[in-house]
Every structure is written in structure tokens, then in C-alpha cells.
Write a structure and sequence with these properties.
heterodimer, A: 441 residues, alpha/beta, Aspartate Aminotransferase, domain 1, Aspartate Aminotransferase, domain 2, seven-stranded mixed β-sheet, 12 helices, 14 strands, globular, B: 485 residues, 2 domains, 13 strands, 34% helix
Chain lengths: 441, 485
Amino acid sequence: MRYVPHTEDDIRAMLDVVGAPDLDALFASIPAGARRPEGLNLPEALTEMELTAHMSALAGAGGQGFQVYAGAGSYEHFVPAAVGYLLGRSEFVTAYTPYQPEISQGTLQAIYEYQTLVSRLLGFEAANASMYDGATALAEALLMSLRINKKKTKVAVSRAIHPNYRKVVETYFRPTGYEVVELPFDGAGRTVLDGMNLADLAGLAVGSPNFFGVVEDLGPMAAKVRDAGALFITSFTEPLAYGVFKNPGSLGADIACGEGQSLGLPRSFGGPGLGMFATLMKHIRNIPGRLVGRTHDLSGRRGFVLTLSTREQHIRREKAVSNICTNNSLCALAAAMYMASAGSTGLAALARQNRDKAEYLKGRLAEKGLVSPFPGPTFNEFVVKMPQGFEARWKELLGQKIMAGLPIERYYPELAGHYLFCATEVHSRENLDRLAAEVTK
Amino acid sequence: MTVFPGDSGLIFNEPLLWEKGKKGRVGISLPRPDVPEAAPLGDQWAGPAPDFPDLGEVDVVRHYTRLSQWNFGVDSGMYPLGSCTMKYNPKINERMAALPGLADVHPLLPEEYVQGPLRLMYELQNLLTEVTGMDAISVQPTAGAHGELAGMLVIHAYHRSNGEKRSRIIVPDTAHGTNPASAALCGMEPLGIQSNDQGILPVEAVAAVMDESVAGIMVTNPNTLGLFEENFQKIAQVVHSKGGLVYCDGANMNAIMGIAHLGRLGVDVMHLNLHKTFSTPHGGGGPGSGPVLVRKHLEKFLPVPRIVKDGDRYRLSDDFPDSIGRLHAFYGNFGVMIKAYSYIMTLGKDLKKASQVAVLNANYIKEQLKSVLHLAYDRPCMHECVFSDKNQKDQKITTLDMVKRLMDYGFHPPTIYFPLVVHGAIMIEPTETECKEDIDVFIEAFKSVVREALEDPEALHRAPSRSKVRRLDETAAARKPCLIN
């Protein structure tokens, strides 16, 4: 049988040692009423060749071969061959959480390096070993602000943050008794703080780049929010933006959290992604998730261990800062490999190329009179109001395996007819020209 | 003489990333620029390039290859980490998950273009409800603790829909730490109860604390002592009679596939760990997948979006007004689901055999080691057995010393100092994928370590001696945290 190497002789010999007449006898402690004598009603086991054929058929019914000009939290970037190969090293893939540091130094050093790269990219003093995704990272960041500002019971979230992220926040907060209020956005697609009593808030979260691709003016907001005693949290879906734009740490944020799928991970129908989470050392005792720290061994050699575990569930149980245990470590490793491969020079160049592509597409569409209602700087993504009746053309293009933007009316009813477009380094000028021509046909 | 897998060899040193490389090197192949440069951003917006090291491709490849060699994985050797089910991760599953039509799909493509992925998720859900005997499922939670949170939210929503707010939940002393932490996230206070001298929960202990203010109970079954909770059905009756719900932590499902029916056992809500029972690799700490399963009367509370089948078409639906809501930006860890689906399709009904042999392996180790190690509960076990360091007290040898020495023999240590109810616990879970010969060598290695405890205790205090680094100063790491360079 696949993956069970025991011969009948092995089983007999082992049963003799155990003192059981047969395999069923091993389960005598399970009461009769909870058994399933009928067995499992499962399909017959497939061979590798049969499985490959079956799965290839399922894969063929997917969105293969599409030109997707939409991001919205899931981006197409080229993944260097080396990243894929290195990530496949089974010493990384088949290890558990590094509880035994002496034989887990590979994972531990790599995650320490990941924490450093993330801190530098986002402009912070510390980062954790990863969260599940950008949405859960935001929910955890808001809960963290309530742990730090213990006397407060309210947080605020910009309506320009990814709609699904805000839904996840709602889910996490529903049983807590804390209040989540929404901050509106203005005609430029930027978050508005006016009218909000900031002093009431434990934390306030703004996306940048936000769901519309718009880069927010974080500096003045950070100052206001922190002066009022609240934590300033920034969320993001496209970390590559910080290859060209100022990062949230340098603009005064307390926490930056978001999705890191762009950094070397395939879109994989939305998961697994990578929840990135960075903050300042003064908040470190309240950060959720695993942390790797540097130390030394008995011979004084440099080494790495999981640390500050007294925050975590396996030590603190119900008093833990979060319930997270398994996170997205291998995805963090992919991101580290990606950032290390690109380096400072490569990441900046790649980010510039991404911006160039999106700006080019924006310009081509503008030539056809399709102008973004949000004039400020954007990264990779931007919103365009399409002409009346574009929906039919959009569907036609889908039939040609072109996804010409994402209609966002279902998330923002007031933006009926608006589409969120995305272009990255994978889209050639020829294809961008074709897209601009096709949408106006 | 037995040759143990552990040996010495050339181990490479490898510095930190920023201790190598040179400014101006690039390890990626930048695409050829084919559009004009965008207008400059200006000082208000433009930031400096990130402070990363610049490395060549060879620098990066050597770096991570060497780092990987400092790691121990299931592919390196036996990894009997209790409660973690470190079984072999079949390679075909990795290949399936990398198929471009699955790995490269954008999650927001319209449904008619993602029928393959939706069908896979839908069928995986059906396979998992069949294996557990539960009625309905969501595969959206991305890890065990995320599944627990989903389950606690379902329990919270159920009581709220009855106009009740129950703010306490029973959690036994043998539970994983994630159980009380997940309950606390939902504003529930855990009520501790203790297992009996047989290592299982007595009905009376539950009856003594169960009342109409208690939301229910969270039980890991088989429990973390590797024992089946024999009173489970009676406990479920007590909890149900007071209007509570029964949550089962399914982390140890690998013991009972095809053997126990959790619906008949009285479970209302449970989660699975696809990265344990269903062979998806753990990745050094994820990504995992932690589906939440419920009985029929709780189905309406499951997370959205849910996958709905109309005729032969699949679609995503948010139209479940009683749902606890969304738990992930998209639909969960699809990439992990592909591997679990492939695994189940490759084994079919043989999943039962996997459980039987997992339990046989654990009992075999228990019988062979109980002559030298103190066995916490001397009775037939499920998929794992729990020893302690009680026999080594006189030699001042601890559990930690023994398992560190085990590394030198070429084995990953068992789970140690958990569950907390066994002082100095050594929790061994071999899984079904270890063959008899390798298990025999493991047993011999452990016996040899116990012998060394008597004859050469220093060898244990010094251990490990063959790993990249020796024992690390964890106290220093926590006292002055150095989390980034």
C-alpha cells in the first residue's frame, strides 16, 4: 500500500510484540456505538498516473492561460527559477516548527533574515515570522492595539482597505465586544480622518497602497493619530510598492501589516499567501506570532532560537496574545529568497518597472478618454470609470481569456461602472497596447 | 553492530545574507524595459531603495542550500514528534499543487473560469466529511488554530442565535495551548478540568462544572496522552443536556480514520489539520490548512464564501445570513488543499490501514521502550505513547538531555514536556510511514541513550555534539531580544 511500508510479516511480528491478535484489537478502547463498521465510502485509490490525469483535467478547467489585468490582493509576478528550486529543498519543506533549534538552524536563520528583510522593507525595528495572510494580519494588528491601549474599546478602519480584509476584521471582532468604525474616503480615493474622535481609538488602520492602488499621504495622518494616543496601523496588499515609495515605518506608523504574496509566491487561487507583520520594539511584548531571535551556543557560536515565547499560546494558554501556532513559514522563506535574490538594486529596479507598466497602461487608457477618478500617485493598480455598457465587452474579453480589470461595484456600490486595473512586469507593452485597444472596441 | 543514521560529515559555514554580496549585484533577471519611464514621483512620495544586501544568483543558491543542510526534515529521517503527525509527504502531491492551471489561477476570476479549482475544493470537502462522519464543512481556515477559532465562532453564534451568551467553556488539562487561546479570542473563559488516573476524562468532572452558563467543551480525541476518550459519548450527553456543544480538536485524527465516526461519538464541531493527518508538508511552520466541520444543525454558521453546486456547476456564495463571516482574504490555503486532496485520492479506503498501522507502530514502540523508560499510563495507546524521565532521576538526567542525545543518533526528538500532566513528558508519534526496521533502530538508539545515562551521563549533558550548533542559550535570547540584524 502506498506510503505504508509494512509487509504482512511485519504486521504479524509487531502484533505479537504488542500482544494483540489482529489490527482491530488495537482499537478496543473505542466504544461500539462510535465505530463505523461500514468502513469508508471513498473512491478507489488512484495510481500516480491516474491521479496525474485526473488532476490535469481539473487544472484544465481552471483559469490557465489568462491575461489577468486585475490584482486586488493577488498579483502576477515572475518568480525566478532559483527561488522555486531552493524552496523545494525538502529539508525546509518537510521540517516542523523549529522547536529543536540545534537541528533547525536552517529554518531559524532564514526566518531571522526574513524578519530583518521585512523590517527594512517596511521601515521597522522588528517583524514576526509570518501570519496567515494580509487580512488576518490586519485583524491581529487591531487586536494588538487594544492590548496596548487597554482602556479603549474602539478601533477605526479605512473603507479604502481591501473589502475582504475588512470582512475578516468583522469576523474576528464580532464576539469581542469591541467596536470597529469605518473611515470614509474622499473624491481622490484617500482616507478621511475629519470628524473622527481619534482620542477614543485604540488603533486606526489605513491601507497604502489602498484597494484602489492609491498611495495615501501617511505622514500627516500618522502624526495626528499618534498625538491622539492611538496606534497608527498601515495595511497593504502589494509590498513591492516600497521599492519606490516611502515605507510606512519612515512615515510614523506603529504597525505595518499586509499580504506578501507578491514576493515570490504564485497566486494559487488566493492561498497560501503571506501575512507580513512589522512593528516597533516598544510594542514587541504584544506582537502576535512566532519570533526568531539571535543567541549563542555553549561554544559561543552564533545561533538562532524561537524567542519571547511567553506571549504565545503553548506557554500562556488563554492569556496568550494570539492563538496562532502554525503560521506561513515556508511562504516567508519564499519571500526571503525572493528579496535576497532581487537585493536592494534589483528590488528598486523591479518596483520601478512595475510602476512604469501601470503608468503606461493608465496613459493609454486616458488617451481613449478612460480617466481615473483618483488623480494621486498609485502603484500597479488604478481605478478607471468605464463607459456605459462596458460590462458586455468585459465578458466578451473573458471569452478571449483576457480579464480587463475587476469591476468593483459589488464592493463599492457608489463606484458602479468602475474597474480596478493592474499591470506588473509580466505584461508586455504589446499586450498593454492590445488591452487598451480591446476595451474600447 | 547496528549502524545508526547519525554520523558526522562536512558541515558548511554560511554567514548572514548581509555579510556577503557586493553593492550592484542582482540575483534576478530583470525584464527588458519596453515602456517609457514614468514621471518621477517627487520628494513627497519617493523613498530610497530598501536596505537589502545585493547578491548574485550563486550567492543566493549556496546560501539557502547550506542553510537547508542544517535542518532535519521527514525526508532526512524519523521525526516522531508527538501530536504533530510527521508522516511522509508524498512527492506526487507537490507536483499536483504546482500544475499551472491550479497554482497560477487568480482568485477573482469569474466562477465559470475556475470550475476546476472549485470542484477540487468541493470534492475535498465531501471526502473530509466522509472520513470524519460529520455533515458539513468549510476548508477556509488556514491552520489548526484558525480552524479552532472558526469552531469557537460557530459555538458563539449558535448560542447567540438562541438568545444566549455563554461565556465559559470546559477545556481539560491535556488540551493543546491553542484550545484555551482560541476560546479566549471569542471572549470565552476556559474552565479547567482534570483527567483521571487512567489518563482520560471522567464524566463526573464534566458534570460537576457543566451548567447553563457553559458554552460547551473542547476535547482532543484521541487525547494528547495518546488515549481514546472512552467516556466521550457520556460526556457529550452531559454537555448536550445542559444546552452546550461539543468541540473536538481533530489534531490526532490520524489514529482513527475509518474506525471512529465522530458524528456518532457526539461531536458537534471539530477541525482537522491537513498538514498532519492528510500528509501536506509542514514547511517548518506552515502553511497549513485547518478545515472546520459541523453537524447539520450548525451548518448555517459556517464561514463564507461557501462552495455551492448547482447541477454540474460550482459557484461561491456569500448568501448565508447566519454565517460567522469571512476568515481569510480569499478561500483559504488552496495550495495545501490540492495536496491533501491528492493524498486522499491516492489512498482511498486505505486511509483506514494508515490509521491501523500508525497505532500499531506506536504500541510497538511503547512495548519495546517501557522496560527502560517510565511509561506514564501503562495501557494500550492510539497513535502516540507518552513516557517520562522518572527512571533517570537518580542519574540527574532529564528528558531534554535524552532527546538531545537522540539527535546524535540521527533522529528528530519526540515532543517533550507536553502534555503538562506528565512531568518530563516524552511523547512519541512514529506515524504509519516508518517501516519496522527503522523503528527498531530508533528503539535501539533510545535504549542506548538510556544506557549512556548510567555509564556516561556527560555524553548526554553535552549533547547534541554532531549538529551544526550545540545547545543554545534561550534565556539570553529572551532577555535581550535581537530579532533583526
